[in-house]
Design brief:
Layout: H1 2-35, E1 68-69, E2 74-78, E3 85-93, E4 96-103, E5 107-112, E6 118-123, E7 129-134, E8 139-144, E9 149-153, E10 159-163, E11 176-182, E12 185-190, E13 197-201, E14 211-213, E15 221-227, E16 230-235, E17 240-244, E18 249-254, E19 261-267, E20 270-275, E21 280-283, E22 290-294, E23 301-306, E24 310-315, E25 319-324, E26 330-335, E27 343-348, E28 354-358, E29 363-366
Parallel strand pairs: 1-26
Antiparallel strand pairs: 2-29, 3-4, 4-5, 5-6, 7-8, 8-9, 9-10, 11-12, 12-13, 13-14, 15-16, 16-17, 17-18, 19-20, 20-21, 21-22, 23-24, 24-25, 25-26, 27-28, 28-29
Length: about 375
């Protein structure tokens, strides 16, 4: 599969080069014809229009159309971190929205969305924070490359509980990568092969070791999401696996990516995964097979957020793409407002407002995204 992908990529590059060469020759010919007048009795035959290179059948997408640029405006920037923001989430507390961020500077922050001010600073991890999650119980949860997860009191900014790893040495070799909460149980993915998925009961205040769940991954876990009674984990080797929480047994195995799965998201019966191979896959929950593969990003897909009829993907290529969930077509593209800054995370509020995180250590909020009436080529 990797060889096939490489061959397709090389074929596309070759055709692009041929297309550019033909265009350059045409431009040069036209320039010469304009500068040298042709004899009156020797009419010049019109230049032959070069044929457009044919797209390989294996890479065609039914109904593909040129995506439009998203009509948007930057509302506010959220600054304060001294290193790349790796994770973001949005939560409504009281009558206000708050943006929570986790960074490589070992800290998490809470920003008031309306003012952009940092109202809380969470410090306690000893390595980069890989994931943030706000729960309805009023606590913020973070995972870190230091191998621990922490529960934070958002009112005071103080640590309420530390979740210990399930190892004798007291720490993970490679750290925690992702987090989700289901049925008052905290699940965390780890890069350690032997204990790639850990679980803790939130009802207990004791710092007990997490329960190790056998998922069948050949390597560690890099992404995680949940649905009622089901946990979906993306692995470092490109496999996506399901674990049935109530039956305490593995479910479907979704195979198709050939590089690390960096993001997973689920809404209803729509399961999506983004990968370091720069593709997004839509999976069937019934068969475990891929419904469609979406291409367009030029680098790793860092995060995915699902809406009712569409979803957004953020990539290290510095763009956010809006996709039609039903057709898989890219409807529009938003370019990062931080120059060439890669998008490292994204989240969407309940009202549909988009927030992105970038490698420059800032987060950005946008007006509600709309599609322009005219298509931009």
């Amino acid at each position: 599969r990797q060889i096939q992908h490489t061959l397709m990529h090389e074929e596309a590059k070759r055709m692009d080069a041929e297309h550019l060469l033909v265009s350059a020759r045409k431009t040069q010919t036209t320039s010469v014809m304009e500068s040298v007048p042709s004899p009156v009795n020797s009419p010049v035959s019109p230049a032959r229009t070069p044929r457009t290179p044919r797209t390989p059948a294996s890479s065609r997408v039914s109904g593909t159309a040129t995506p439009r640029r998203l009509s948007h405006q930057v509302v506010r920037r959220y600054a304060g971190h001294s290193a790349t923001i790796l994770a973001v989430c949005i939560a409504n507390i009281g009558d206000s929205d708050f943006l929570f961020t986790g960074s490589q500077d070992w800290s998490a922050r809470a920003f008031e969305v309306s003012s952009g001010q940092c109202v809380r600073h969470f410090e306690g991890h000893t390595a980069a924070i890989s994931a943030v999650c706000f729960h309805t119980n009023g606590f913020l949860y973070t995972t870190s490359h230091d191998g621990t997860a922490i529960q934070w009191d958002v009112t005071s900014g103080k640590m309420a509980r530390r979740f210990a790893p399930a190892t004798i040495s007291g720490s993970h070799t490679r750290g925690l990568t992702s987090v989700c909460i289901m049925d008052e149980v905290l699940f965390a993915g780890s890069r350690d092969t032997e204990q790639s998925l850990l679980a803790w009961e939130l009802g207990s205040s004791e710092e007990v070791a997490g329960t190790v769940i056998s998922t069948g991954h050949a390597a560690g876990i890099s992404a995680i999401c949940s649905a009622p009674g089901r946990i979906f984990t993306g692995g470092l080797k490109g496999e996506l696996r399901e674990w049935n929480y109530y039956d305490d047994m593995p479910g479907c195995v979704f195979e198709g990516h050939f590089q690390e799965i960096t993001s997973v998201a689920i809404s209803g019966d729509t399961l999506l995964s983004g990968s370091r191979d720069a593709t997004i896959k839509h999976w069937s929950l019934l068969t475990g097979r891929v419904v469609r593969t979406m291409t367009g990003h030029l680098s790793v897909v860092r995060d995915i957020a699902i809406d009712q009829t569409s979803f957004l993907s953020g990539s290290a290529d510095g763009t956010v793409r809006m996709w039609d969930t039903n057709t898989g077509m890219c409807r529009a593209v938003l370019h990062s407002q931080s120059g060439e800054s890669a998008v490292t995370g994204l989240t969407v509020s309940a009202t549909g407002q988009l927030f992105t995180a970038c490698v420059d250590g800032t987060a950005v909020s946008y007006t509600h995204l709309t599609l322009p009436t005219k298509r931009i080529v």
